[in-house]
Design goal:
The structure holds two protein chains of two kinds. Chain A is an alpha/beta fold. In chain A, about 35% of the residues lie in helices and about 25% in strands. In chain A, the strands form three sheets. A six-stranded mixed beta sheet of chain A has the order 6-7-8-3-9-10, with helices on both faces. In chain A, helix 5 crosses helix 7. The chains are: A alpha/beta, B mainly alpha.
Chain lengths: ~300, ~375
C-alpha cells in the first residue's frame, strides 16, 4: 500500500503539491489524472524519492520512504517514463537486466527472467533479446521499458505518462497488455496520465489533481458520476461525461442470464460504452455476450446499471 | 586536412578530384622534375630528366596512374580506385625523381647536390590533396591512405631509390641527430599531453560538479589560446629560472628557464582547452530523460557516471584526445626555440642556414608522426564508440 500523508512540495515560489493525502490500496491500478502542471508527476516522483517533499510524508507498506536508502528504494520499485529511456549502448536484454544486475543475481537466473519478461510484454525473446534499442519502434521500446521495470519483480510500479507518445492504435495495444499484466501479477500500479479515456480504460481507482491539490478520488464510475467536480467536467468534452462513465463500467455486470439468438455478439471484457456503440451500429436494443453460460444485454439493463 | 566526418565533404570532394589530378600530371612537365647544384651552398638549377631505362619506366607508370586517377574522378566507382591510383602516382613520381637524380649527378662528385624541382614538389602536394579528396568522396578519413603512401615511400627509400637525393645525403650525415630528435619530439608530445590530462581531467570533473566554476575555468583555458606560443614560452623563462634558482633540487631534476620544462608546460597549457572542452561535452552527451531513467532504476551516482555518461560520451572525449594529441605533435616543433629539443631543432637550424633539405628532414617526420597519431586514435575511437 502506498500512502501520501499531507504531502507538499514547492519549486522555488511555485507550490507544486499542496497537502495531498491519498491512499493507494495494494493491488490497485490507481490513475493520477490531471492537466499539465497539476502536480501529478511530482506526486508520483515522491514515491521513489526523485522528488523529496518539503512537508508531509510518503509511506510504502507502512515504511516512511525517507528512511530508506534511495538506491535500495528505487531498485524495489518499477519505473516507466514517457520517453522510455532505454540505454542506447546496451542490448534489449541488457536493458531489461539492469536492476537484477544491480541486485547481483547470477547469470542463469537473469537470462531466464529476461526471456520470461520479454514474452510477458509480448516480444518474442529470441527475436528481440540482442537487438539495440535504436532498431525498435516506439511501441516495442515501451514494451521493453515495461519489462525492465518489472525485472526484479517489484511489488509497486510507477508509470509516468507511459503511453502518451504512442499512436492511438499502439497505445490501445499497450493498455491491453498492461491490464493483462496487472491482472496476472497483482502489482500495485500508480500511473500518471492526462488522457481521460486512458484513465477509464485502465483504472481501478482514479485520483484527479488540479493546481497541486487532490480534487476527487475513488472508483472511476463514482468520480465520473453526476457529482463530478468542475475540473473533471472540463477535462471531458461538454456533455460527454455520461458516455465516459459508461467506459468505466463492465458490460458483464449489467447483463441478464439467457440466450439472445441472432443478436450481435459483444466480446468478453467489453465495457458499457462498447455495448452502446455496438447497439447503435446494428440498430438493435439487444446484444448477446460472448462466453458461457449464455447471457444477454438490453438497453434497459444498460440504463439501469449506468444510473448513478 | 579536411574534416573526415564532415557530411558536406561527400559532395565537396568529387568536383575537386579531376582538376587536382590534371594539375598534378601537368606540374612536373611545366615546372621541372629535378634540380642540380654544384654544392650545398649554391642555389640549385632545373635540370632535364636523363633518359635511362629505369627512369623511363617510372615515368610511364606515373602517367598511367595519373590517367587512371583522372578516369576515377570521372566515374568514382569502385571507391578505392581513385585512392589506389593516387598512391601509385605518388610512388611513381617519387621514383622518377629519385632514379632521375641518381643518373643526373656528375659521376664521382661528392659535393654536388640534386633535389626534386618545384614541379615535382607541387605534383606530390597536389597528389596528396587528390588522395584526401578521394578519401572524402569515399566518406572516410584520409589519414590511412596517406599513411599508406608514406609507407610506400619509406619502402622505396629502404630500397635505395632516394640515395642520390640531397635530402637522403643530409639524412645520412645526420642519422644520429635525427633519431635523437624523433625520440625527443615523441617525449615532448607525450609529456605535454600527460601534463595537460593531469590538469584537465580533475578540473573538468570539478567544473562538471560545480557549474559555476566552469565559466572561470574555460575562460582561463581560452585566454591561454590567445597568447602566441613563442610568447608563452618566453614568458615562462623568467619564473621557471627563478624557481630553479630558489630551489636547487628542481634544477637537479632538469627544471629551468630553458630546456624541455618550459616547452612541456607551455604546450600543455594549449592542450587544456580542447581536452577540457571534450571531457565536459562528453559528460553531457547523455540526455536528461535517460539519466532520469537510470536514477529511477536505482543506479548510484557512480553507476550513472560509469554506466551511462562515460560510455555515451566516449566518442566525443576520444575525439578531443585525438585533436589534442595531433596538436601536441605539431606544437612540440616550437620547443626548439627554448632549447627543448625535438624535430624543431632540425627545422630551425635549416631555416638559419637556408638549407631546405634540413628543414624537410625535420618536417617529414613531424608530418608522419601527426598522421600516425591521428590514424591510430581514429581507429581506437571507431572501436570504442562506433
Amino acid at each position: 500500500m502506498i500512502a501520501f500523508e499531507a504531502v507538499s512540495h514547492r519549486y522555488g515560489a511555485v507550490e507544486a503539491l499542496r497537502e495531498v493525502s491519498l491512499e493507494v490500496p495494494s493491488g490497485a491500478l490507481c490513475v493520477l489524472l490531471g492537466e499539465s502542471g497539476s502536480g501529478k508527476s511530482t506526486l508520483l516522483r515522491t514515491v521513489n524519492r526523485l522528488v523529496e517533499p518539503s512537508a508531509g510524508r510518503v509511506t510504502l507498506q507502512g515504511r516512511d520512504v525517507a528512511a530508506i536508502d534511495p538506491q535500495a528504494l528505487r531498485r524495489g520499485i518499477g519505473y516507466v517514463i514517457q520517453s522510455v529511456g532505454l540505454f542506447p549502448h546496451r542490448s534489449v536484454a541488457e536493458n531489461v537486466a539492469t536492476v537484477p544486475r544491480l541486485l547481483g543475481w547470477d547469470r542463469a537466473r537473469i537470462e531466464a527472467r529476461v526471456d520470461a519478461l520479454l514474452a510477458m510484454v509480448g516480444l518474442e525473446p529470441r527475436a528481440y533479446r540482442d537487438r539495440p534499442p535504436a532498431t525498435l519502434s516506439g511501441g516495442q521500446a515501451q514494451r521493453v521499458g515495461l519489462a525492465r521495470a518489472l525485472a526484479a519483480d517489484p511489488p509497486v510500479l510507477l508509470m509516468d505518462e507511459p503511453f502518451s507518445a504512442l499512436d492511438p492504435g499502439t497505445r490501445r495495444e499497450l493498455q491491453a497488455a498492461l491490464r493483462r499484466i496487472h491482472a496476472e501479477t497483482g502489482k500495485t500500479i500508480l500511473l500518471v496520465t492526462h488522457d481521460v479515456e486512458e484513465a477509464l480504460a485502465l483504472a481501478s481507482r482514479v485520483a484527479v489533481m488540479a493546481g497541486g491539490r487532490l480534487v476527487a478520488e475513488g472508483v472511476p464510475a463514482e468520480v465520473f458520476g453526476p457529482g463530478a467536480p468542475d475540473v473533471v467536467r472540463r477535462m471531458v468534452r461538454a456533455g460527454a461525461l455520461a458516455f465516459h462513465r459508461l467506459a468505466a463500467l463492465d458490460a458483464a455486470a449489467a447483463a441478464a442470464p439467457g440466450p439472445a439468438p441472432g443478436a450481435p455478439l459483444l466480446p468478453a471484457g467489453a465495457r458499457l460504452s462498447d455495448a452502446l456503440l455496438l447497439m447503435l451500429e446494428h440498430g438493435t436494443g439487444c446484444l448477446a455476450l460472448e462466453g458461457d453460460p449464455p447471457r444477454h444485454l438490453t438497453v434497459a439493463g444498460l440504463l439501469g446499471h449506468s444510473a448513478p | 586536412m579536411p574534416s573526415p566526418h564532415c557530411p558536406a565533404g561527400r559532395l565537396a570532394g568529387a568536383p575537386a578530384l579531376a582538376p587536382l589530378a590534371l594539375a598534378a600530371i601537368l606540374a612536373p612537365l611545366l615546372l621541372g622534375w629535378i634540380s642540380v647544384a654544384p654544392n650545398r651552398l649554391v642555389s640549385p638549377r632545373a635540370a632535364s630528366l636523363p633518359g635511362s631505362a629505369p627512369v623511363l619506366a617510372a615515368l610511364v607508370l606515373f602517367h598511367l596512374s595519373g590517367l587512371v586517377l583522372l578516369l576515377a574522378a570521372w566515374r568514382p566507382r569502385p571507391f578505392w580506385l581513385a585512392e589506389a591510383a593516387a598512391i601509385g602516382a605518388v610512388l611513381a613520381l617519387a621514383a622518377t625523381v629519385g632514379l632521375g637524380t641518381a643518373a643526373a649527378l656528375p659521376a664521382g662528385s661528392t659535393v654536388a647536390r640534386a633535389a626534386p624541382a618545384a614541379g615535382a614538389w607541387l605534383g606530390l602536394l597536389l597528389l596528396a590533396l587528390a588522395l584526401a579528396a578521394a578519401a572524402v568522396v569515399r566518406g572516410g578519413t584520409p589519414a590511412l591512405p596517406l599513411l599508406g603512401a608514406l609507407l610506400g615511400l619509406a619502402a622505396l627509400g629502404a630500397a635505395g631509390v632516394f640515395d642520390s637525393l640531397s635530402l637522403a645525403r643530409e639524412m645520412a650525415g645526420r642519422a644520429a641527430d635525427l633519431r635523437g630528435a624523433i625520440a625527443g619530439h615523441l617525449g615532448l608530445s607525450l609529456a605535454s599531453l600527460l601534463l595537460a590530462l593531469l590538469v584537465a581531467v580533475p578540473l573538468s570533473a570539478l567544473a562538471f560538479v560545480r557549474p559555476r566554476l566552469e565559466g572561470a575555468f574555460l575562460a582561463i583555458a581560452s585566454g591561454i589560446q590567445v597568447v602566441p606560443s613563442i610568447a608563452l614560452f618566453g614568458l615562462l623563462i623568467a619564473p621557471l629560472a627563478a624557481l630553479a634558482t630558489a630551489f636547487p633540487a628542481l634544477r637537479a631534476m632538469g627544471l629551468g628557464g630553458i630546456g624541455p620544462a618550459p616547452a612541456v608546460i607551455g604546450i600543455a597549457a594549449y592542450l587544456v582547452l580542447p581536452l577540457a572542452g571534450g571531457i565536459l561535452s562528453g559528460l553531457r552527451v547523455a540526455p536528461d530523460d535517460l539519466l532520469e531513467a537510470a536514477r529511477g532504476q536505482g543506479l548510484s551516482p557512480r553507476g550513472v557516471l560509469l554506466g551511462v555518461r562515460l560510455p555515451l560520451g566516449a566518442g566525443v572525449m576520444l575525439g578531443a584526445l585525438r585533436l589534442a594529441s595531433v596538436q601536441a605533435v605539431g606544437l612540440s616543433t616550437l620547443a626548439a626555440l627554448v632549447g627543448g629539443g625535438g624535430l624543431g631543432t632540425l627545422v630551425f637550424q635549416g631555416i638559419g642556414q637556408l638549407a631546405t633539405d634540413l628543414i624537410l628532414l625535420g618536417v617529414f617526420p613531424i608530418l608522419a608522426l601527426s598522421l600516425a597519431v591521428d590514424a591510430g586514435l581514429a581507429l581506437l575511437a571507431r572501436r570504442v564508440a562506433p
